Amino acid sequence: MLNEGDPVPDVILQGLEAQPVSPADFKGQKLVVYFYPKDDTSGCTAQARAFSALAGEFEKAGTWILGVSKDDSKKHRKFIDKYELKVPLATDSDGSACEAFGTWVQKSMYGRKYMGIDRATFLIDRDGVVKRVWRKVKVPGHVEEVLEAARELP
Q1: The pTM is what?
Q2: Residue-wise pLDDT tens digits, 55-93
Q3: Which residues of the chain have pLDDT under 70?
Q4: For residues 92 and 96, what is the distance between their CA atoms, to the nearest angstrom?
Q5: Which one of the listed residues 21, 44, 55, 124 is annotated catalytic?
Q6: Residue 61 CB neighbour total at 10 angstroms
Q7: In the annotation, is 98 catalytic?
C-alpha cells in the first residue's frame, strides 16, 4: 500500500500510442496520477471530465495529470474522443502499477466478490515523493480538492 512520504513506484504503463509511460518520466515536475475502474462508465466519465475541465488550472499550477486503468489504448482513444478529454490516459495491462500503488482490491457488488481497481488519486512532488493520497474517491468536489493541494506544493 503506497502512502504519503513514499517514493513513487518505478512502474511502466502504456500510453495511447503504445509508448512506455512512467511516473518517473515526470521527475522535476508535479504529477497527479489517478486510478479509475473503467472507461465510459458514469463515475469514471465524471471524474475524467472534471480533470479535463480544470486541466488548464493544473497546468498553471505546474502539475501534470495521468489517468490510469486497465482498459487498452483503443478503449482509451474512444473514451477521449467521445468526451473530448484533455488529460492523458495510460494502460496498466499487467496490473503492476495497480499493485504498486495499492489500488487493486477486492470489491463486492450484489453480494459477488471480485478484484478491481479502487478509485484513488496520488499527488507526487517534483522529487518523486507521494505527498497526498486519496483513496475510495467520491467524484463530486474531488478534482477541486486535488487542484488546491497541487497549488500548495512548491
Answers
A1: 0.94
A2: 999 999 999 999 999 999 999 999 999 999 999 999 999
A3: none
A4: 7
A5: 44
A6: 17
A7: no
In this structure, the number of other CB atoms found within 10 A of the CB of residue 136 comes to 8
482498459: which residue's cell?
A: 71
Helix, strand, coil percentages in the chain from 3-state DSSP, rounded to 5: 30, 30, 40
Q: Are 128 and 7 in contact (CB under 8 A)?
A: yes
Residues 6+ apart with CB under 8 A from 81: none
Question: What is the 8-class DSSP label of residue 139?
Answer: S
**List of E strands, 1-154:** 13-14, 20-21, 30-35, 63-69, 89-91, 104-109, 112-117, 120-124, 130-135
